[in-house]
Amino acid sequence: MTERKIPDTEVLSIAQCAALLGTTEKAIRRRVDRRHLPFRRLGRRIIFLRSELLAYLDRLPGCRPSELLLDSSASLRVR
């Protein structure tokens, strides 16, 4: 399996966004069509701002790394 290089630029294309999120370009296009990802239009091009994508990911429900560390250390003490 080939490893995708994750870009470190602020403005991302669909392909770069897919690499950052670990998904396909087709999945990114579907999420854009459904307005599930923050994006911008530059003429006919769809672009993404890295900072907006990272903020979007941070707001998703789930366990944050700091919470994970707290939970794992608590479970280690119980055993």
Describe this entry's structure for a reader.
- This protein is of the alpha+beta class.
- The chain has one domain.
- It has four helices and three strands; from the N terminus they run βααββαα.
- A three-stranded antiparallel sheet has the order 1-3-2.
- Helix 1 (14-21) crosses helix 2 (25-33).
- The model has no long low-confidence stretch (mean pLDDT 85).
Mean pLDDT: 85
Terminal Cα separation, in Å? Answer: 39 Å
Radius of gyration: 16 Å
Strand arrangement, largest sheet?
1-3-2
Question: H/E order of the elements?
Answer: EHHEEHH
Which blocks of ≥5 consecutive residues have pLDDT under 50?
Answer: none
Level of helix content? 40-55%
How does the helix and strand content classify structurally?
alpha+beta
In short:
The protein has 79 residues and is α+β, with helices and mostly antiparallel strands.
Characteristics:
79 residues, alpha+beta, 3-stranded antiparallel beta sheet, globular
